[in-house]
Specification:
This protein has 2 domains: 1-70 and 211-234, no CATH class; 72-203, no CATH class. Helices cover 82% and strands 0% of the residues. By secondary structure, it is an all-alpha fold. The protein is globular, with a radius of gyration of 21 Å. The protein contains 9 helices and no strands. Keywords: Membrane, Peroxisome, Peroxisome biogenesis, Transmembrane, Transmembrane helix. The chain crosses the membrane at residues 139-156.
């Protein structure tokens, strides 16, 4: 039967594994959130009515709040990752400190963002709510900045290592192919980071991108994260 073929299709099983993960649901909601952010700006610029724009504004705001709930407690994961990186003496010092900086930045961001959620949801009001939100954005910016520096350094080291490889030797070819894959992963992450950093940088006043540009940037980085999360559940 057609229904049986659909229910037992491997893609359906993959989809169920994907949505069973918090990361999968978060990446899916984030993608829709930023698509809505772009469309909301685009329709406004094209002169569409407020009623036409309202659904996209609602998606943008409600999905953002939903993701904040899903991220509650995730800060501990980044604190642990920072601690593990600090203790890993075998790691390249530059990569190690960039990793620690990135993870501590994300830990601080998620911790403050959780408190901001309590404030915005009316669960507990903080007197310094606006300042806390600003500090959360600054921590997010610094976390991404460390990631960009680390990714750029990783690219440099990979290029230097590839120059020293003997590609005519079998082992050299294998190592070269490994480096190519690592470089592709690093470039992909750098693209996502560069897109993402525009959002806190604009909020902090370091740059001045409009909502349309931020929506597109967020969509690109979200799709990269969505693809990675989908592959992990294959």
């Amino acid at each position: 039967m057609v229904a049986d073929n659909l229910v037992y299709h491997p893609t359906v099983a993959h989809y169920l594994r994907f949505v069973a993960t918090t990361v999968g649901r978060d990446k899916a909601l984030r993608t829709l959130q930023f698509i809505a952010r772009f469309l909301s700006f685009y329709l406004l610029r094209k002169g569409y009515s407020a009623s036409s724009i309202a659904p996209f504004e609602a998606i943008k705001k409600q999905f953002s709040q939903a993701r904040k709930v899903m991220r509650l407690g995730k800060n501990v994961e980044h604190l642990k990752a920072a601690s593990l990186a600090m203790d890993d003496k075998s790691m390249d010092p530059v990569i190690r400190y960039c990793t620690v900086g990135r993870q501590l930045g994300y830990f601080t961001y998620l911790t403050l963002d959780s408190l901001c959620f309590l404030d915005s949801a009316g669960i507990y009001k903080f007197k310094s709510g606006k300042k806390m939100a600003s500090e959360a954005t600054r921590a997010w910016f610094l976390g991404i900045l460390f990631s960009i520096v680390g990714g750029t350094y990783t690219m440099y080291k990979a290029n230097e290592k590839e120059k020293r490889l003997t590609k005519t030797v079998a082992e050299g070819k294998v190592e070269s192919e490994k480096l190519i894959k690592e470089r592709q992963a690093t470039v992909t992450q750098l693209i996502a980071d560069v897109c993402d950093i525009t959002i806190p940088a604009t909020s902090l006043g370091y740059v001045n991108f409009d909502e349309g540009a931020l929506g597109l940037a967020g969509t690109v980085s979200s799709l990269i994260g969505l693809k990675a999360a989908w592959r992990k559940t294959a």
